[in-house]
Amino acid sequence: MTDLMNAKPDKMQSVRTLFGIDSDLEVPTFGERADHVPEIDTAYRFNPDVTLAILAGFTRNRRVMVQGLHGTGKSTHIEQVAARLNWPCLRVNLDGHVSRLDLVGKDAIVVRDGLQVTEFQEGIVPWSLQRPVALIFDEYDAGRPDVMFVIQRILEREGSFTLLDQNRVIHPHPYFRLFATANTVGLGNLDGMYHGTQVLNHAQIDRWNIVAKLDYLPHDEEVRIILARVPGKDSEKGRKLIDAMVEVADLTRKGFAAGDLSTLMSPRTVITWAENCEIFRNPARAFRLSFLNKCDEAERPIVAEYYQRCFGEELDESYQRTQEAP
């Protein structure tokens, strides 16, 4: 696919065939893979409800926001759907360094025929808007107010975008799609867990057609994902270890929900713990370095108790003993 601007989907495929979800929905797919299409992760596990919400965005041009705690795979979920549709995808993290000029564009000095001239360079939004691209705004609730009002212009389904400096109106490509991910739903940092998140304009939140919530996977599914990520643990002894590790993670999540802990273990942290077990050959040492040292000092005895419950031994004893991990 060389001419991305003029590309369009050329085939309808069944959701049942592509994702194994019991639905009669058919989705448009591209026959060729462009440079911006994400790579397929065969180990990724799809949440059926969230997948259908994202597919509604691709199929019916709905604006879809995926909300959930850290480490649930929100952005990856959208990317992996796009990968299976061969849909070009652009992911932008709305950290504090992304400015209005980054999104809209700015004048820049370039060399033409040996002369320096001033030329307008399109930003992320006008570039994406003119192409069949799935634009993902990651960490949406961390965006600066001036940046968010730029985005608000394109939240309408057929919303055009005016480049004031160019006296030009850009109409969206028929297959331009817009997604976002967020830890909160625009209500700010209520529990102290996500510093830097903003209270978002409710008029803007109201423009998102679909808001899907992505939670952590069931226990057995999470174990399978970690084994796929750390294949060195895919043995009988290794599977028992990973099962205990996920049990610890489950307890931290319940402790966080009950207000006993101010942090929790995401699947990303459990994968890191498993990878560190390969390095240090000691689950307790890897646990300290991967998670325990990140916890509030006053809460560490609670976390150590979770470890003792799942592993059947005190964390300090296990840490001091030289123990070969499976």
From TrEMBL:
Gene3D superfamilies the record matches: P-loop containing nucleotide triphosphate hydrolases
Stretches assigned to the Cobaltochelatase subunit CobS N-terminal domain: 5-37
Pfam families in the record: AAA_5, CobS_N
Origin species: Modicisalibacter ilicicola DSM 19980
Domain ATPase dynein-related AAA positions: 64-186
Sample GO molecular function, one term: ATP hydrolysis activity
Name of the molecule in the record: Cobaltochelatase CobS
Higher taxonomy: Bacteria, Pseudomonadati, Pseudomonadota, Gammaproteobacteria, Oceanospirillales
